[in-house]
Amino acid sequence: MSHAPTHQLDPDTPPVRTDGDEGGGEGGGGVRRKRRRTGRILLAVLGAMLLIGAGSAYWLYSDLDGNLKGIDIDTAIGDDRPAKLPTSGQNILILGSDSRAGANANLNTGHVSGARSDTALMVHIPEGRTRATAVNIPRDTLVTRPECTKYDGSTVASARRVMFNSIYSQVGPACVVKTVEQMSGIRMDHYVEIDFAGFKGLVDAIGGVTVTVDQDIHDSSSGLDLTKGTHRLDGTQSLEFVRTRHGIGDGSDLGRIGLQQKFMTALLGEIKKQDLLGSPTKSYKIASSLTSALTTDTGLSSLSKLAQFGSSLKAIDPSTMETIMLPVRYDTQDPNRVVGAQPQDKQLWNALRHDTTIPASAKKSPATGGKTP
To answer: For residue range 1-21, what is the model confidence (pLDDT) as tens digits?
Structure first.
């Protein structure tokens, strides 16, 4: 199919349950892969790991240890996981959660209760840790959710045609990890989550980020109101910028993904320009802001563990990271949803699983958001 979505509901509208499926329903929109030599917003998490792992001023961060929150992913998932292959390198699932609770309630993020995985990024770091590939999983992708265990120990049965971003709120982060592992056949080594308020604090801590847009953007849903040209964004405006979808393109995730990629390039450039590693005071503010917003697996849930892992990533240049949208096509039953496109989907995961060259065909998505890919 080559058509664009016929309609979109507000991105914060929860999916309608159908036939006992806790993630199907109406709303959302199509997306397309957008390949660029850049990362996305949540790759700032990796940058923070590098910052915390700088070493020379590590003693300044010792009191931040209590900020980090940990989840025992291994215990929650159990043994029903892909094998760890010698060629698999390191694989990290990074989620941006859109909880409306706590500090997030004061942000312009909608009025839906609970939380969702607003952004999902699987980062593959080959052995040697000198490069990385990031796969964006569209939030509107219909997937098969495996059987999972909730926080209270109860079991949730497997279900087909579940919207990906609903899994977090309905079953929990461990089930999101398990779902991605089942989709990809790749075992996740780590899990990292950052919330809205933490993202805002990160941008404010570095004094804002400068972006240039090639068109006016007016989105009453996110609150963003920008004219064509260059703008210096504070934390609140940056949050509006990376959440905008209604003010550009066809209202699907396509435009938002492009803005997020643009913003990440600007953010990393700002960090490099300011030489934050040479400023203990400013780097401490960033580390404090970010660690307060982070939830990780227990393997990274202390400053010493996070610093050690961050130090191991120093050879990676974020500007050379390849970002690939999971190849998807419009669902034949609901064109406002997408599903993994075959054989591209399997080709992409297989290449990452065995750390081989990703075929060019695996980087092309049939779903284009109504625009030429």
So the answer is: 434 333 333 333 333 333 333
Q: Is residue 127 a contact partner of residue 147, using CB atoms and an 8 Å limit?
A: no
What 3 state SS string does the chain have?
Answer: CCCCCCCCCCCCCCCCCECCECCCCCCCCCCCCCCEECCCHHHHHHHHHHHHCCCCCHHHHHHHHHHCEEECHHHHHCCCCCCCCCCCCEEEEEEEECCCCHHHHHCCCCCCCCCCEEEEEEEEECCCCCCCEEEECCCCEEEEECCEECCCCCEECCEEEEEHHHHHHHHCHHHHHHHHHHHHCCCCCEEEEEEHHHHHHHHHHCCCEEEEECCCEEECCCCEEECCEEEEECHHHHHHHHHCCCCCCCCCHHHHHHHHHHHHHHHHHHHHHHCHHHCHHHHHHHHHHHHHHEEEECCCCCHHHHHHHHHCCCCCCHHHCEEEECCEEECCCCCCCEEECCCHHHHHHHHHHHCCCCCHHHHCCCCCCCCCC
Instruction: Please give the structure tokens belonging to residue 36.
Output: 């660029």
The listed range with the strongest mean pLDDT (38-42, 159-163, 260-264, 268-272) is 159-163
- Report d(CA 275, CA 50) in Å as an integer: 13
Q: 345, 33 in Cβ contact below 8 A?
A: no
Q: Can you say how many angstroms the Cα of residue 240 is from the centroid of all Cα atoms in its chain?
A: 16
What is the rounded CA–CA span in Å between residue 229 and residue 289?
29
pTM of the model: 0.76
For residue 344, count other CB atoms closer than 10 A to its CB: 21
Q: Which residue has the tokens 């400013």?
A: 282
> Do β-strands 322-325 and 133-136 pair in parallel, antiparallel, or remain unpaired?
parallel
Pairing of strands 328-330, 142-145: unpaired
Contact yes or no for 168/116 (Cβ under 8 A): yes
Cis? peptide before 343, omega within 30° of 0:
yes
Per DSSP bridges, beta strands 190-195 and 90-97 are parallel
